[in-house]
Design brief:
There is one protein chain. This protein is α/β, with parallel strands linked by helices. Helix content is 40%, strand content 22%. Strands 3-2-1-4-5-7-6 form a 7-stranded mixed β-sheet, with helices on both faces. The protein is globular. The termini are far apart.
Length: 222
């Protein structure tokens, strides 16, 4: 199945709210546990690219008081939801910074992050190499990198089967987004080629489930 890109920003109010209310407990918890399994307990400065409503950054901050997170997203509706979620936990306000900016225009004042993470951003991007350039730019040598995203199925029928299996009880807007996202996703082989082109051969891509891949590793010294 050929890739069919989708809009880069999930900024409709109904769409963002449906996403925030959806049950992502299993994949988001698995993301955090995958980080711990590969790199140990999180510590230091973490950059999250494409944080959505900030569920994963907040999980990391709750888990470890040694973590500060800069969480970015290009969709104002998502950042609004993230601010509400963060500010509902006053103890996290000083350790989770939220930045509303598209990836292509991102210009953070500092780089040298101890970890760079991302969950389900890459498939939204029309030009994926901008993502890997940001990973390289903002991560220090030795930084942990963990990226998880959808893997494109072999056919539209397979994509619909995944939607039916994992999002049967979700609102129609979320089911449609999920289906479109599967069409927009990259295969593990395509991601491997992107890593090579970006000079990030130290990072490895692997299948994580029937619908996800994971990239992980540490940034090599220049």
């Amino acid at each position: 199945m050929e890739r069919s890109p989708e809009p880069e920003l999930m900024d409709g109010g109904e769409q963002a709210l449906a996403y925030a209310r959806a049950d992502f407990e299993e994949p988001n918890s698995r993301f955090v546990e995958s980080f711990v399994a590969r790199f140990g307990e999180p510590a230091g400065r973490v950059l999250d690219l494409g944080c959505g409503p900030a569920d994963i950054p907040l999980r990391l901050a709750r888990r470890s008081p040694a973590v500060t997170v800069t969480a970015t997203d290009g969709a104002p509706a998502m950042i609004d939801l993230a601010v509400r979620a963060r500010d509902a936990e006053p103890a996290l306000r000083q350790r989770v910074e939220l930045v509303c900016c598209p990836l292509q225009a991102l210009q953070l004042l500092e780089a040298g992050y101890d970890a760079v993470i991302s969950n389900s951003l890459l498939h939204h991007l029309h030009e994926p190499m901008a993502f890997w350039a940001a990973v390289r730019h903002y991560a220090r040598a030795g930084a942990a990198v963990l990226v998880m995203d959808l893997a494109r199925p072999s056919s539209p029928e397979a994509a619909q089967g995944i939607v039916d299996a994992y999002a049967a009880d979700e609102p129609p807007v979320l089911r449609e987004d999920f289906y479109n996202s599967l069409h927009a996703a990259f295969t593990p082989a395509e991601v491997g080629a992107q890593l090579e082109a970006a000079g990030l051969e130290e990072l490895a891509v692997e299948a994580a489930s029937d619908r996800h891949w994971i990239v992980s590793g540490r940034i090599a010294a220049a």
